[in-house]
Amino acid sequence: MTDMLPPCPECSSSFTYQADALLACPECGHEWSPEATGAEVQIRDSVGNPLADGDTVTVIKDLKLKGSSSVIKVGTKVRGIRLVAGDHDIDCKIPGIGQIGLKSQFVKKVTD
After folding, report:
1. Are 65 and 71 in contact (CB under 8 A)?
2. Cα angle at 6 between 50 and 25, to 5 degrees?
3. Which among 33, 42, 67, 101 is placed 20 to 30 Å from 16, CA to CA?
4. Are 24 and 30 in contact (CB under 8 A)?
5. Residue 38 has pLDDT above 70, yes or no
6. CA dihedral in degrees (98, 101, 103, 104; nearest 10)?
7. 108 - beta bridge partners?
């Protein structure tokens, strides 16, 4: 996953990693904000596939909806996702449920 992150601006190391909201370099110890360099962290699904607006994904585990007795079942196909910033980084519309935010760690990209 380090191949999608920018190299360290101090020592040019390619071994950068994300630590909370910052990027960090294990070789020189430099920490910086991805926004400061113009770099954008790629949103990935549960198996590491990069996601983009308009993709189709499937839910990989049953998800209980807070404040409701409804459940999004494993295998539910969600079409036309929209990526957003935040904890729930996917906005989508699920038939029978409506507009909802999902976490990318609970979906898998459908490849054609």
Report:
1. yes
2. 120
3. 101
4. yes
5. no
6. 80
7. 58
